[in-house]
Protein backbone atom coordinates (compact mmCIF):
# COMPACT_ATOMS: atom_id res chain seq x y z
CA UNK A 1 0.00 0.00 0.00
CA UNK A 2 2.81 2.41 0.90
CA UNK A 3 4.58 1.55 -2.34
CA UNK A 4 1.57 2.26 -4.57
CA UNK A 5 0.89 5.56 -2.82
CA UNK A 6 4.53 6.60 -3.12
CA UNK A 7 4.67 5.78 -6.82
CA UNK A 8 1.45 7.65 -7.49
CA UNK A 9 2.63 10.76 -5.64
CA UNK A 10 5.96 10.55 -7.44
CA UNK A 11 4.23 10.59 -10.83
CA UNK A 12 2.08 13.54 -9.79
CA UNK A 13 5.25 15.43 -8.99
CA UNK A 14 7.40 14.48 -11.99
CA UNK A 15 4.88 14.01 -14.78
CA UNK A 16 2.04 16.34 -13.87
CA UNK A 17 4.41 18.74 -12.06
CA UNK A 18 1.94 19.57 -9.34
CA UNK A 19 3.01 21.96 -6.60
CA UNK A 20 4.47 20.75 -3.32
CA UNK A 21 1.37 22.03 -1.53
CA UNK A 22 -0.94 19.98 -3.78
CA UNK A 23 1.23 16.87 -3.42
CA UNK A 24 1.12 17.25 0.38
CA UNK A 25 -2.69 17.44 0.25
CA UNK A 26 -2.88 14.24 -1.83
CA UNK A 27 -0.49 12.54 0.60
CA UNK A 28 -2.69 13.44 3.58
CA UNK A 29 -5.81 12.20 1.78
CA UNK A 30 -4.19 8.85 0.94
CA UNK A 31 -2.91 8.53 4.49
CA UNK A 32 -6.46 9.03 5.74
CA UNK A 33 -7.73 6.40 3.31
CA UNK A 34 -5.06 3.99 4.54
CA UNK A 35 -6.15 4.63 8.14
CA UNK A 36 -9.80 4.03 7.26
CA UNK A 37 -8.94 0.85 5.36
CA UNK A 38 -6.97 -0.66 8.21
CA UNK A 39 -5.09 -3.75 7.00
CA UNK A 40 -7.10 -4.19 3.81
CA UNK A 41 -5.20 -3.95 0.56
CA UNK A 42 -5.94 -1.06 -1.82
CA UNK A 43 -7.20 -3.49 -4.46
CA UNK A 44 -9.55 -5.22 -2.00
CA UNK A 45 -11.57 -2.08 -1.20
CA UNK A 46 -15.06 -1.93 -2.70
CA UNK A 47 -17.68 0.65 -3.57
CA UNK A 48 -19.47 -0.18 -0.31
CA UNK A 49 -16.24 0.43 1.63
CA UNK A 50 -15.85 3.87 0.10
CA UNK A 51 -19.43 4.80 0.92
CA UNK A 52 -18.82 3.64 4.49
CA UNK A 53 -15.61 5.69 4.71
CA UNK A 54 -17.41 8.82 3.48
CA UNK A 55 -20.13 8.25 6.10
CA UNK A 56 -17.49 7.89 8.83
CA UNK A 57 -15.82 11.13 7.82
CA UNK A 58 -19.17 12.90 7.92
CA UNK A 59 -20.03 11.40 11.30
CA UNK A 60 -16.64 12.62 12.52
CA UNK A 61 -17.63 16.19 11.78
CA UNK A 62 -15.93 16.78 8.44
CA UNK A 63 -17.66 19.18 6.07
CA UNK A 64 -19.26 17.83 2.87
CA UNK A 65 -16.97 20.04 0.79
CA UNK A 66 -13.88 18.51 2.44
CA UNK A 67 -15.22 14.97 1.97
CA UNK A 68 -15.96 15.68 -1.70
CA UNK A 69 -12.38 16.83 -2.22
CA UNK A 70 -11.01 13.67 -0.61
CA UNK A 71 -13.26 11.43 -2.67
CA UNK A 72 -12.05 13.21 -5.79
CA UNK A 73 -8.44 12.56 -4.78
CA UNK A 74 -9.13 8.91 -4.03
CA UNK A 75 -10.96 8.55 -7.35
CA UNK A 76 -7.93 9.88 -9.18
CA UNK A 77 -5.62 7.51 -7.34
CA UNK A 78 -7.74 4.49 -8.24
CA UNK A 79 -7.91 5.65 -11.84
CA UNK A 80 -4.10 5.56 -11.86
CA UNK A 81 -3.95 2.25 -9.94
CA UNK A 82 -6.26 0.57 -12.46
CA UNK A 83 -3.57 1.17 -15.09
CA UNK A 84 -0.99 -0.54 -12.93
CA UNK A 85 -2.90 -3.63 -11.79
CA UNK A 86 -6.15 -5.32 -12.72
CA UNK A 87 -9.11 -3.92 -10.76
CA UNK A 88 -12.76 -4.97 -11.11
CA UNK A 89 -13.74 -1.27 -11.11
CA UNK A 90 -12.83 2.05 -9.58
CA UNK A 91 -14.39 1.66 -6.10
CA UNK A 92 -14.76 5.42 -5.67
CA UNK A 93 -16.68 5.90 -8.91
CA UNK A 94 -20.21 7.04 -8.15
CA UNK A 95 -19.55 7.67 -4.45
CA UNK A 96 -20.83 11.10 -3.49
CA UNK A 97 -20.19 13.25 -0.48
CA UNK A 98 -23.14 14.01 1.83
CA UNK A 99 -25.19 16.95 0.63
CA UNK A 100 -24.36 20.29 2.07
CA UNK A 101 -27.24 21.80 4.03
CA UNK A 102 -28.83 24.71 2.22
CA UNK A 103 -27.96 27.95 3.94
CA UNK A 104 -30.06 31.05 3.56
CA UNK A 105 -28.33 34.11 2.12
CA UNK A 106 -27.47 36.79 4.62
CA UNK A 107 -29.52 39.96 4.37
CA UNK A 108 -29.38 43.08 6.49
CA UNK A 109 -32.52 44.40 8.21
CA UNK A 110 -33.93 47.45 6.42
CA UNK A 111 -32.79 49.88 9.12
CA UNK A 112 -29.30 48.37 9.18
CA UNK A 113 -28.98 48.66 5.39
CA UNK A 114 -30.01 52.32 5.46
CA UNK A 115 -27.68 53.10 8.38
CA UNK A 116 -24.80 51.41 6.57
CA UNK A 117 -25.29 53.53 3.46
CA UNK A 118 -25.69 56.74 5.46
CA UNK A 119 -22.62 56.13 7.63
CA UNK A 120 -19.25 57.90 7.38
CA UNK A 121 -20.62 60.96 5.60
CA UNK A 122 -19.15 64.41 6.11
CA UNK A 123 -19.36 67.81 4.49
CA UNK A 124 -16.54 67.66 1.94
CA UNK A 125 -15.99 64.09 0.75
CA UNK A 126 -12.99 63.18 -1.39
CA UNK A 127 -13.55 61.76 -4.89
CA UNK A 128 -12.79 58.23 -3.64
CA UNK A 129 -15.51 58.57 -1.01
CA UNK A 130 -18.00 59.77 -3.62
CA UNK A 131 -17.08 56.80 -5.79
CA UNK A 132 -17.60 54.42 -2.87
CA UNK A 133 -20.93 56.00 -1.95
CA UNK A 134 -22.18 55.67 -5.54
CA UNK A 135 -21.07 52.03 -5.75
CA UNK A 136 -22.65 51.01 -2.46
CA UNK A 137 -25.89 52.85 -3.15
CA UNK A 138 -26.12 51.21 -6.58
CA UNK A 139 -25.44 47.73 -5.21
CA UNK A 140 -28.35 48.06 -2.79
CA UNK A 141 -30.61 50.08 -5.09
CA UNK A 142 -30.42 47.67 -8.03
CA UNK A 143 -29.28 44.34 -6.58
CA UNK A 144 -26.30 44.03 -8.90
CA UNK A 145 -23.66 41.33 -8.72
CA UNK A 146 -20.26 42.84 -7.93
CA UNK A 147 -18.94 41.75 -11.34
CA UNK A 148 -21.86 43.52 -13.01
CA UNK A 149 -21.15 46.69 -11.05
CA UNK A 150 -17.43 46.65 -11.89
CA UNK A 151 -18.22 46.15 -15.59
CA UNK A 152 -20.43 49.23 -15.94
CA UNK A 153 -19.49 51.97 -18.39
CA UNK A 154 -20.44 55.65 -18.26
CA UNK A 155 -22.71 55.07 -21.25
CA UNK A 156 -23.05 52.58 -24.07
CA UNK A 157 -19.88 52.49 -26.18
CA UNK A 158 -18.88 50.51 -29.25
CA UNK A 159 -15.54 50.32 -31.02
CA UNK A 160 -13.78 47.88 -33.37
CA UNK A 161 -15.84 44.78 -32.73
CA UNK A 162 -16.40 45.32 -28.99
CA UNK A 163 -19.24 47.01 -27.17
CA UNK A 164 -20.30 47.71 -23.61
CA UNK A 165 -21.63 44.78 -21.60
CA UNK A 166 -23.11 47.14 -19.03
CA UNK A 167 -23.68 50.87 -18.73
CA UNK A 168 -25.51 53.57 -16.79
CA UNK A 169 -28.41 55.21 -18.60
CA UNK A 170 -28.69 58.42 -16.59
CA UNK A 171 -31.56 59.80 -18.62
CA UNK A 172 -33.72 56.70 -18.09
CA UNK A 173 -32.54 56.22 -14.50
CA UNK A 174 -31.49 52.63 -15.23
CA UNK A 175 -28.46 50.41 -15.50
CA UNK A 176 -28.11 47.84 -18.25
CA UNK A 177 -26.06 44.80 -17.25
CA UNK A 178 -25.08 41.47 -18.76
CA UNK A 179 -25.44 38.73 -16.17
CA UNK A 180 -24.90 35.00 -16.11
CA UNK A 181 -25.51 33.20 -19.37
CA UNK A 182 -24.89 36.50 -21.22
CA UNK A 183 -28.43 37.51 -20.33
CA UNK A 184 -28.89 41.28 -20.55
CA UNK A 185 -31.36 43.09 -18.32
CA UNK A 186 -32.39 46.62 -17.36
CA UNK A 187 -32.69 47.50 -13.69
CA UNK A 188 -34.10 50.76 -12.24
CA UNK A 189 -31.82 52.96 -10.13
CA UNK A 190 -33.34 54.53 -7.02
CA UNK A 191 -33.25 58.22 -6.16
CA UNK A 192 -30.42 58.16 -3.57
CA UNK A 193 -28.29 56.08 -5.92
CA UNK A 194 -28.91 58.50 -8.81
CA UNK A 195 -27.90 61.40 -6.57
CA UNK A 196 -24.75 59.57 -5.46
CA UNK A 197 -23.88 58.76 -9.07
CA UNK A 198 -24.35 62.39 -10.11
CA UNK A 199 -22.03 63.55 -7.31
CA UNK A 200 -19.39 61.01 -8.36
CA UNK A 201 -19.64 61.80 -12.06
CA UNK A 202 -19.15 65.50 -11.30
CA UNK A 203 -15.64 64.76 -9.97
CA UNK A 204 -14.74 61.55 -11.83
CA UNK A 205 -11.30 61.98 -13.45
CA UNK A 206 -10.56 60.55 -16.90
CA UNK A 207 -9.54 56.89 -16.81
CA UNK A 208 -5.80 56.39 -17.27
CA UNK A 209 -6.43 53.94 -20.10
CA UNK A 210 -9.04 56.13 -21.74
CA UNK A 211 -11.80 53.62 -21.02
CA UNK A 212 -15.41 54.52 -20.29
CA UNK A 213 -15.43 52.67 -16.96
CA UNK A 214 -18.03 54.10 -14.59
CA UNK A 215 -16.11 53.32 -11.40
CA UNK A 216 -12.36 53.78 -11.05
CA UNK A 217 -9.67 52.54 -8.71
CA UNK A 218 -7.22 54.90 -7.03
CA UNK A 219 -4.87 54.30 -9.96
CA UNK A 220 -7.49 55.56 -12.39
CA UNK A 221 -8.28 52.20 -14.03
CA UNK A 222 -11.52 50.25 -13.98
CA UNK A 223 -12.31 49.11 -10.47
CA UNK A 224 -12.09 45.36 -9.87
CA UNK A 225 -14.63 43.25 -7.95
CA UNK A 226 -11.95 42.58 -5.33
CA UNK A 227 -11.43 46.30 -4.74
CA UNK A 228 -15.19 46.82 -4.36
CA UNK A 229 -15.26 44.04 -1.76
CA UNK A 230 -12.37 45.56 0.19
CA UNK A 231 -13.84 49.06 0.13
CA UNK A 232 -17.24 47.87 1.32
CA UNK A 233 -15.66 45.80 4.08
CA UNK A 234 -13.68 48.81 5.30
CA UNK A 235 -16.75 51.04 5.12
CA UNK A 236 -18.83 48.56 7.14
CA UNK A 237 -16.14 48.23 9.81
CA UNK A 238 -15.88 52.01 10.15
CA UNK A 239 -19.67 52.18 10.37
CA UNK A 240 -19.60 49.72 13.27
CA UNK A 241 -21.50 46.99 11.47
CA UNK A 242 -21.79 43.90 13.72
CA UNK A 243 -21.61 41.53 10.72
CA UNK A 244 -19.24 41.09 7.81
CA UNK A 245 -20.69 42.94 4.84
CA UNK A 246 -19.73 42.07 1.28
CA UNK A 247 -21.39 43.09 -2.01
CA UNK A 248 -23.60 40.01 -2.16
CA UNK A 249 -25.07 40.93 1.23
CA UNK A 250 -26.40 44.12 -0.35
CA UNK A 251 -27.77 42.11 -3.29
CA UNK A 252 -29.51 39.75 -0.87
CA UNK A 253 -30.81 42.70 1.12
CA UNK A 254 -32.18 44.30 -2.06
CA UNK A 255 -34.05 41.10 -2.98
CA UNK A 256 -35.35 40.41 0.51
CA UNK A 257 -36.56 43.95 1.16
CA UNK A 258 -38.20 44.21 -2.26
CA UNK A 259 -40.01 40.92 -1.74
CA UNK A 260 -41.16 41.96 1.73
CA UNK A 261 -42.70 45.12 0.31
CA UNK A 262 -44.13 43.82 -2.97
CA UNK A 263 -44.60 40.06 -2.60
CA UNK A 264 -43.89 39.80 -6.34
CA UNK A 265 -41.47 36.90 -6.72
CA UNK A 266 -41.44 37.05 -10.54
CA UNK A 267 -40.46 40.72 -10.52
CA UNK A 268 -37.62 40.03 -8.08
CA UNK A 269 -36.48 37.16 -10.33
CA UNK A 270 -36.30 39.49 -13.33
CA UNK A 271 -34.49 42.23 -11.45
CA UNK A 272 -31.90 39.78 -10.08
CA UNK A 273 -31.39 38.14 -13.46
CA UNK A 274 -32.14 34.63 -12.24
CA UNK A 275 -32.73 32.14 -15.04
CA UNK A 276 -34.92 30.00 -12.78
CA UNK A 277 -37.55 30.99 -10.24
CA UNK A 278 -36.06 28.31 -7.97
CA UNK A 279 -33.02 30.51 -7.33
CA UNK A 280 -35.27 33.37 -6.27
CA UNK A 281 -37.53 31.30 -4.03
CA UNK A 282 -34.87 31.23 -1.32
CA UNK A 283 -35.91 34.81 -0.52
CA UNK A 284 -39.39 33.64 0.42
CA UNK A 285 -37.75 31.89 3.38
CA UNK A 286 -36.09 35.17 4.35
CA UNK A 287 -39.44 36.91 3.98
CA UNK A 288 -41.06 34.34 6.28
CA UNK A 289 -38.27 34.83 8.83
CA UNK A 290 -39.00 38.56 8.79
CA UNK A 291 -42.73 37.97 9.25
CA UNK A 292 -42.07 35.46 12.03
CA UNK A 293 -39.83 37.95 13.84
CA UNK A 294 -42.52 40.63 13.57
CA UNK A 295 -45.09 38.17 14.93
CA UNK A 296 -42.85 37.24 17.86
CA UNK A 297 -42.35 40.88 18.77
CA UNK A 298 -45.89 42.10 18.27
CA UNK A 299 -48.47 39.40 18.91
CA UNK A 300 -49.62 39.24 22.54
CA UNK A 301 -49.93 35.44 22.42
CA UNK A 302 -46.74 34.74 20.50
CA UNK A 303 -44.59 33.72 23.45
CA UNK A 304 -45.26 31.04 26.02
CA UNK A 305 -45.68 32.29 29.56
UniProtKB/TrEMBL annotation:
CDD domains per record: INT_XerDC_C
Gene name per UniProt: xerC
UniProt domain Core-binding (CB): residue ranges: 1-82
Subcellular location: Cytoplasm
Name this protein carries in UniProt: Tyrosine recombinase XerC
Domain Tyr recombinase: 103-296
Record's keyword terms, sorted: Cell cycle, Cell division, Chromosome partition, Cytoplasm, DNA integration, DNA recombination, DNA-binding
The species this protein was found in: Massilia suwonensis
Main localization of the protein described in the UniProt heading: cytoplasm
